[in-house]
Write a structure and sequence with these properties.
The protein is globular. The protein has a two-stranded antiparallel sheet with strand order 1-2. Strand 1 and strand 2 form a beta hairpin. The longest helix has 38 residues. The protein has 345 residues and is mainly alpha-helical. 30% of the residues are buried. Helix 6 packs antiparallel against helix 7, helix 6 crosses helix 9 and helix 7 crosses helix 9. It has two domains: 89 residues, no CATH class; 186 residues, Orthogonal Bundle (MetI-like fold).
């Protein structure tokens, strides 16, 4: 057989292409399958971790003075006395069907909203508001300041951008949060130090409660992002094809936009994805500092009360977001860089 011909885009074609006829589609399917397999492994780790926590919900609910008979009775009522393997597969089956199970603490207290989907809805919504607002500011700022610093590397604008980002990026979240509370509450008295929201109330109803958490997350994430985008832009500007374009008299603005910017965006996508993944973990610390009623606070409270089902649900959601961001970032990079698509099979 002869060699396969090349399409105008440079992608191999043949009468029997199979999966290579839609390389991007198959890439998405493979990355999705990998993500699902990773989540399965994570589910096992989460289940094992939550089952080695000292005590259980029955002991926490009844208190230290409860006798063993009362504890065993409540464990049976809450379905906590089955084997770990049986509990895991019941939980996994519920996840597959879109159910996170029921809160043991809420059931013991005879609350009507004991379903995890009900107890988690409001905290998850508040966290999404906080994360999306932060991301909407973080992404353009990271790209703008990182690319500007790279284009003007070694000059005044570069130093004016890089130095503040280095300082803010080096401070832990709780230190930055404490400084912001001191300045904007203790000194200026213009913003609340904690998010005073009623149960079930949306964070959007109190915009002032979002300011300090958003600024804290931005300060912690944007520094590293700007430095990495800057480094990528500096590297691209040193590439041979950029020098060749300049030697051939191509206008500097066109060199930056057509040759440098696009090639710098691909690694920048991965950098931004890393920053967004940081938000998934950093939001837990920030919510705890500001008493923000989001999924981070929900997770901390669930660990305190030993409510295993709530801990598992919150942890799986955070893991799913983390993996989902990575999969989407990989797809965007492939779409941005045509030469990467020719290597997909």
């Amino acid at each position: 057989m002869g060699n396969p011909s090349l399409s105008p885009a440079g992608v191999p074609t043949s009468p029997h292409q199979g999966s290579s006829s839609h390389p991007v589609l198959w890439f998405v399917l493979r990355r999705t399958a990998t993500g699902i397999a990773t989540l399965f492994v994570i589910s096992i780790l989460i289940f094992l971790a939550t089952n080695v926590l000292p005590g259980n919900a029955a002991e926490v609910i009844l208190g230290r003075n409860a006798n063993p008979t009362q504890v065993r009775a409540l464990e049976a009522k809450l379905d906590l006395n089955r084997s770990p393997v049986s509990q895991y597969f019941t939980w996994l089956g519920g996840l597959i069907h879109g159910s996170f199970g029921r809160s043991a603490v809420a059931e013991a207290q005879h609350r009507p909203d004991s379903a995890i989907s009900a107890t988690l809805a409001s905290p998850l919504g508040n966290s999404l508001v906080l994360a999306l607002l932060t991301a909407a500011i973080l992404i353009p700022m990271t790209l703008l300041f990182g690319l500007l610093a790279g284009i003007h590397a070694g000059r005044k604008l570069d130093h004016a951008i890089s130095l503040p980002s280095l300082v803010t990026g080096g401070l832990p979240e709780f230190v930055m949060a404490t400084l912001l509370i001191f300045v904007f509450f203790n000194v200026l008295d213009v913003l609340p130090p904690v998010a005073l929201l009623d149960p079930g109330e949306s964070a959007l109803s109190h915009p002032d409660a979002l300011v300090l958490p958003v600024v804290t997350l931005l300060a912690a994430a944007i520094g590293a992002g700007i430095r990495q985008v800057r480094a990528g832009m500096v590297e691209v500007l040193k590439a041979d094809y950029v020098d060749f374009a300049r030697l051939n008299g191509v206008d500097e603005r066109r060199v930056l936009i057509r040759y440098a910017l696009r090639n710098a965006l691909a690694p920048s996508v991965q950098i931004i994805a890393q920053n967004l993944q940081y938000l998934v973990g950093g939001i837990i610390i920030v919510e705890s500092v500001f008493a923000f009623p989001g999924i981070g606070t929900y997770l901390v409270n669930a660990v305190t009360t030993r409510d295993v089902a709530e801990v598992q649900a919150a942890a799986m959601l955070l893991a799913g977001l983390y993996i989902g961001i990575n999969v989407v970032a990989d797809l965007i990079v492939v779409l941005l860089v045509p030469r990467l698509r020719t290597g997909l099979t």
